Task: inverse folding
């Protein structure tokens, strides 16, 4: 089945220790998104790619970066995680011009 | 500023007790309103897209409707497995990303 896959599902890191979350998709969608979702809150968009074109939301901290080496994969790098970065990180995909987004299962990040 | 407000924040129903969730929006140039279901610890699951006022979509016990200012997600005779958070999101002009509401947390008690 075509899908959006996120690894790992659960990630524990220490304060200040860099961490990378990964997302892959078999939908062949050209748009990929990273969201941060904290408990009982709406998903908050961090960045998105239209093909290789990177779009950073204005309020995304510099601590967060992203890479998309090819159509299928996208990575979220958190350079120096703080306690406030503990959250669920969601990857989503869509086609340009299509309005529906399809989400992966998320990665739950814990910062100790 | 584009805004999406969902109400109530939480809703507790008895099994079989029908109800509606509300999503009101203030945006310029709506290009689609989306409903998602999110189970605890999982990513949102796409349910419906509505594009124009008067449009309705149905899936099993769920029915989504749209007016020029709000959308309703009607749940008919809910079952405990319908318990989840229901998220509403809108898309405005162009290829702009979705704007999400905070969701309604639904609990259906047997």
Result:
């Amino acid at each position: 089945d075509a899908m959006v896959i996120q690894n790992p599902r659960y990630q524990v890191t220490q304060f200040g220790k860099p961490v990378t979350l990964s997302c892959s998709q078999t939908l062949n969608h050209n748009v990929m998104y990273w969201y941060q979702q904290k408990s009982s809150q709406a998903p908050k968009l961090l960045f998105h790619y239209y093909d290789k074109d990177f779009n950073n939301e204005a309020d995304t901290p510099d601590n967060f970066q992203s890479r998309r080496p090819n159509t299928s994969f996208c990575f979220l790098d958190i350079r120096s995680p703080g306690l406030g970065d503990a959250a669920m990180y969601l990857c989503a995909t869509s086609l340009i011009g299509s309005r529906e987004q399809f989400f992966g299962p998320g990665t739950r990040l814990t910062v100790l | 500023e584009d805004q999406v407000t969902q109400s109530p924040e939480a809703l507790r129903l008895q099994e079989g007790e029908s109800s509606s969730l509300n999503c009101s929006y203030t945006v310029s140039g709506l290009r689609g309103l989306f409903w998602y279901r999110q189970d605890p610890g999982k990513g949102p699951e796409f349910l419906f897209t509505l594009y124009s006022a008067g449009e309705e979509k149905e899936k099993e016990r769920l029915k989504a409707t749209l007016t020029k200012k709000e959308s309703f997600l009607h749940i008919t005779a809910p079952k405990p497995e319908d318990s989840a958070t229901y998220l509403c999101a809108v898309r405005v002009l162009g290829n702009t990303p979705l704007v999400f509401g905070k969701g309604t947390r639904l609990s259906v008690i047997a």
In short: Chain B has one domain: 3-102.
